[in-house]
Specification:
This protein is of the alpha/beta class. The protein is about 35% helix and about 30% strand. It has helices at about 10-20, 35-45, 55-70, 80-90, 110-120; strands spanning about 25-30, 50-55, 75-80, 95-100, 125-140, 145, 150-160, 160-170. An eight-stranded mixed beta sheet has the order 3-2-1-4-5-8-7-6.
């Protein structure tokens, strides 16, 4: 009951935008909750999905949903915080094409920390060259236009929620 799932409508909007990029993508679902977003990515042809979650009831839900859907491979569950999961992926040199994050709306530090890390030069190896980072957030709480090397390229609002899309920018030497 404490998990706020991404609405079906917003998830449909998200995957309509991602449609040209999802097949064969390496997808990470941070603050995964029930795992619905990562599961949708797999169902639409993602090569692999990482689920990062540290709440025991949500971890149980992810496992049950994977089992119910008959998904036995091409995923990894990280029983840890989003930052710890990203650190682990970086240590494993696991390059990601799409990273989706949906922290609790009332935890603005989570957005700052995760997007800040993903936009840092230290995590450049974690993101594929044309990687996309998407943050779901409350519409009334806008996110910054830029986090280090991540620049917002698009924002979609629907109901009380918004999706901010970020891509890494490469600055040319002056």
């Amino acid at each position: 009951m404490e998990t706020r799932p991404t609405s079906d409508r917003l998830r449909e909007t998200l995957f309509n935008v991602l449609a040209p990029r999802i097949a064969g993508a390496r997808f990470t679902d941070l603050y995964a909750g029930s795992g619905a977003v990562g599961l949708e990515a797999l169902s639409r042809g993602a090569l692999h999905a990482h689920f990062a979650e540290n709440a025991p009831p949500a971890l149980t839900a992810i496992r049950e949903n994977l089992k119910l859907l008959g998904i036995g491979r091409n995923f990894m569950i990280h029983e840890r915080s989003a930052l710890a999961a990203l650190d682990r992926l970086q240590q494993q040199q696991s390059v990601q094409d799409i990273i989706f994050l949906d922290p609790p709306y009332d935890a603005p530090k989570e957005y700052e920390q995760v997007l800040g890390l993903l936009g840092s030069t230290a995590s450049a190896r974690l993101l594929a060259e044309d990687a996309l980072v998407i943050a779901e957030h409350a519409k009334r709480t806008p996110l910054a236009e830029r986090y280090g090397t991540l620049q917002r390229t698009r924002e979609l609002k629907q109901g009380d929620a918004a999706l901010s899309f970020y891509q890494r920018i490469v600055e040319l030497p002056v």
